[in-house]
Design brief:
By secondary structure, the protein is an alpha+beta fold. It is about 25% helix and about 40% strand. The N and C termini lie far apart (about 30 Å).
Length: about 110
């Protein structure tokens, strides 16, 4: 969470969902050469269980399609086994594991064809 969110907001990379006048969910999308990177998705504790996370994932996939990408990719901490299982259920495939910024990560891609 050391990213410069001010810069990301100015670049139009941050998307939010309002929930009762507060930020219910946040999504950060980073365009890359061959894929759209889903850099961060998070749902506020007060908004969990409302389906906002899934809506944000659907939004990310549509944004990737609209931008002409054929796939979307993400990474998550390897300890986030529930997230990895969710991503797998909705079509993401693990491509590799590695350490980045001192964190053990699982990298996944989803084809948008």
């Amino acid at each position: 969470m050391l990213d410069d969110y001010g810069a990301l907001i100015r670049q139009g990379r941050v998307h939010v969902v309002d929930h009762n006048g507060a930020i219910g969910a946040i999504l950060v999308l980073i365009p890359e050469q061959d894929a759209l990177l889903l850099d961060n998705v998070a749902v506020a504790p007060a908004a969990q269980g409302l389906g906002l996370g899934r809506k944000m994932l659907q939004f990310a996939e549509q944004a990737a399609r609209d931008a002409g990408y054929r796939c979307i990719r993400l990474y998550t901490h390897q300890a986030m086994t529930e997230n990895i299982a969710l991503y797998s259920r909705i079509g993401y495939v693990e491509t590799h594991r590695g350490e980045e910024k001192g964190l053990p990560r699982v990298y996944m891609t989803k084809s948008l064809d």
